[in-house]
Amino acid sequence: MKNVGFLSFGHYQAVPGSQTRTAEDVLLQSIDLAVAAEELGLDGAYFRVHHFARQLASPFPLLAAVGARTSRIEIGTGVIDMRYENPLYMAEDAAAADLISGGRLQLGISRGSPETALRGYESFGHVPAEGQSDADMARQHTEVFRQAIAGAGVVMSDPKMTGQSVPLPVMPQAPGLADRIWWGSGTRGTAEWTAQQGMNLMSSTLLTEDTGVPFDELQLEQIQRFRAAWSEAGWEREPRVSVSRSVIPILDAQDRAYFGDRSGEDQLGHLDGGIARFGKSYVGEPDALAEELARDVAVREADSLLLTVPNQLGVAYNARLLGALADHVLPAIGWKPRTR
What we know:
The chain is α/β, with parallel strands linked by helices and 340 residues long. The chain contains twelve helices and 15 strands.
């Protein structure tokens, strides 16, 4: 059965109509929305991470708080920019949040995306080495982080304190977390690299390449190439694949005023110095949305679907939106609500 969760970008700003005017608002409402999503039977609560912006930034306090308030729903990120991370400190934080949640953490990470800060990661103390790009540095941080959460020794013990010289892992350790790391991939090539590394695949609403085919077909090829590379690598476990979509049911005049009443089309744009293809938004009456989403070939191929939510409209609005999708749209892709 397909997993479905929500993905919040965690915007906050004191503008007319916003229900998340402060950082405190968006943090507390994110916890409440995760609780509401679990009550609706959804499978996941995921949060975007951005720095130097009025959005959610430090994920682990939020993930731990959501884990303490819920009992079943998966809790994750989509995605953490690894250029900014101290991998060993992140390993400690991630393990602690995972233990608080009872092993429900699903961490989406990546090499990062265009941002408002100019080389903001350097202000966090992370500067690429000579001949290294920021993407290389992010992958290096990822390798150290994954080794740490898998229990590798990362420093030698002090014989004066321990009586021996042995490798010490970071503590705490969270069993199984190493298999619950996802890489946010924007191309077919990086999807293959993700499989070779043994990470799950997280694909968003855009790809930083274009071949002229509709977005869902391009994303389908990305997923297929990931799975082929996974099989070739010989990993024993089955990988997971998620895609993100914006799906807005129009239930009344208020919804229509916010979002209109028609699904859009794929869009092309420039990102990271090249052409990118952006997937369309699904907007309309629930029955029509169910038919459209059921035809999306990438949604059909993925095992997990993350639904982006307009978080600034508040918990009540988004719980109503997710409830309408659960009742009228998601059954068309084979989803059923979970109760435990």
